[in-house]
Amino acid sequence: MSHSSTNPPPPGDPDPGSNPSDAVQQLMRAHGGMLYGLGRRFCGNEDEAADLVQETMLEAFRSWPTFRGDAKATTWLYRIAARTCQRMHQKKGPAAAELPADDILLDQCGLVWMASTEDASPLNDAVRAEARQRLEAAIADLPVEYRMPLVLKEIVGFSGPEIADITGMNETTVRVRVHRARLALRKAIELSLPNPSATGDYESSICRDLLDAKQAAMDRGVDFEIPPGVLTGRCKAVFESLDLTQDMCQALGADDLPDPVATRITDAMASGDDA
Q: Which CATH class is domain 20-94+255-271?
């Protein structure tokens, strides 16, 4: 059965009237690797990541005839993936503890990397590799309620409103959880960074206000400009390492979807398998 859409689909999205198998193949080519990476970071191992992609794609295949094009196919697909992630997590037991509030995470900052010091040097391969390992472990350790919006924002690249649509959270909750998760990841990788600087004194209320503005700029993907002399050394170091954390998250990008997983999905669609 064919469905019409008022507006043409975004570039890369299949038309709502496409054949279900063709549409899901197109989505799998475009998003299979990213979904696999999401699953690996969300579930913690490759087998469960493969299960996540397979369940998501087969559910998309079964549901495609009901897709009317009211939302982007990409958002619709990740909505299915988010529900699948939640089901898989519920089988593992109760939810993890909440992350501390932003100001507590800020107070917990220890030694921080001063990228702007004269003797600072670019991260070498060994240091960057260690920082990436710490980052990956820290993402896996995040409470699931924080891990999902963080991965969707910083690795997949969705906006706050899109994440709210995908997860069913309100936009304020998405924003708060992404902000706390960023600070938790920043804290987790700090020990692998060179040129540590003593934290020193700082005006907590000023630094907190600036931190809120900094995170809002990161949410929008714009530079955060502050007149010289406003930031204390500690705040500046925290901001610089926050930028590093975000850059490293974005560099994680998509994994390669293993060929056997793609083949299983294709074969299941061809046979009409609902299992």
A: mainly alpha
- Sole residue written with tokens 């955060």: 224
Specify the residue for token string 């009211």. 70
Rounded to two decimals, what is the model's pTM? 0.80
Q: Which residues of the chain have pLDDT under 50?
A: 1-9, 93-96, 103-105, 108-121, 198-202, 274-275
